[in-house]
Write a structure and sequence with these properties.
- The protein is mostly helical and about 280 residues long.
- About 70% of the residues lie in helices and about 0% in strands.
- The protein contains ten helices and two strands, in the order ααααααααααββ.
């Protein structure tokens, strides 16, 4: 009996600091200022030397093709038969082609078009792939049809499909938008409509993963009555705190046979029936 009583007294000294530390830690986590997720992304990104090198090269290329024509004012279409196939010189830093056109000016003009095509095609495929991936991951009835459609597009030969699209729609788009803008719209649309499949698969997998996270499961469960203005992560945090407090009660509270009242943090102020928890 004496040994059992001593164990009960020792447990009493353990449960009170444990409960206090639990509430203090929970309160500190809620009071701590939130940090933008992009800062975490930057912390990981800046430690990768290859990523930093690639970013520097891309930035230099963008600066060159965007602002370069304002510095180097040679026309990319000017033909000079007296300067055909010249090498590097001060007048032509990258030389000339077989028609005497300045290669540096042509490279900057072509770079603008290439970057514009890549950016617009990427926007189209990201939007289309994200839409199909979210629909397939969220709605079970649409998952199988959309994934079979994705597999169908993956099996299509891209190059012959692009040639067919150019042959069918080039003249119509040229009449609608003009010769240059029409071919630009055609190429961007063709690349975007034939490259969204991998994005859709990745987004679908992420949606399926998020659907199994704790805050989603907590929002669907019937044990809580969280007001409409509280988001589901709030309910999930409340459930975790309740579970930890309940575990501490079952582990230590029965040794004393007494009740220890632990005040709730500010997070639970909106729940009157959860003002205190007895350990």
């Amino acid at each position: 009996m004496h040994e059992l009583e001593s164990k009960g007294v020792a447990a009493a000294f353990v449960v009170e600091p444990l409960a206090a530390d639990l509430v203090a830690g929970t309160q500190a986590s809620f009071d701590a200022p939130s940090r933008n997720h992009w800062w975490d992304v930057w912390d990981q990104f800046k430690t990768h030397k290859g990523a930093l090198t690639g970013t520097a090269v891309i930035v230099l290329v963008l600066i060159g093709v965007i602002f370069g024509p304002y510095v180097w004012r040679s026309s990319p279409t000017y033909i000079d038969f007296t300067a055909m196939n010249e090498g590097l010189s001060w007048a032509h830093p990258l030389g000339t082609d077989q028609l005497g056109r300045d290669l540096l000016a042509r490279m900057m003009a072509g770079g603008r078009i290439s970057i514009a095509v890549g950016v617009m095609a990427m926007i189209i495929l990201i939007l289309l792939g994200t839409l199909i991936g979210v629909l397939a991951g969220h709605f079970k009835s649409l998952d199988a049809p959309l994934m079979r459609l994705t597999d169908l597009f993956l099996t299509l030969p891209v190059l012959p499909l692009l040639l067919v699209m150019v042959m069918l729609f080039r003249q119509a788009l040229a009449n609608m938008f003009g010769p240059n803008t029409g071919i630009f719209v055609l190429i961007v649309s063709a690349i975007g409509l034939t490259s969204w499949m991998h994005v859709a698969r990745i987004v679908r997998g992420e949606v399926l993963t998020i659907k199994q996270l704790e805050f989603v499961l907590a929002s669907r469960s019937k044990w809580h009555a969280c007001p409409a203005h509280y988001p589901s992560p709030c309910a999930a945090q409340r459930y975790v705190a309740d579970h930890r407090l309940s575990h501490s009660r079952h582990r230590y509270g029965h040794h004393r046979g007494k009740r220890v009242v632990v005040s709730r943090p500010r997070l639970f102020a909106g729940f009157p029936d959860l003002g205190t928890t007895a350990l």
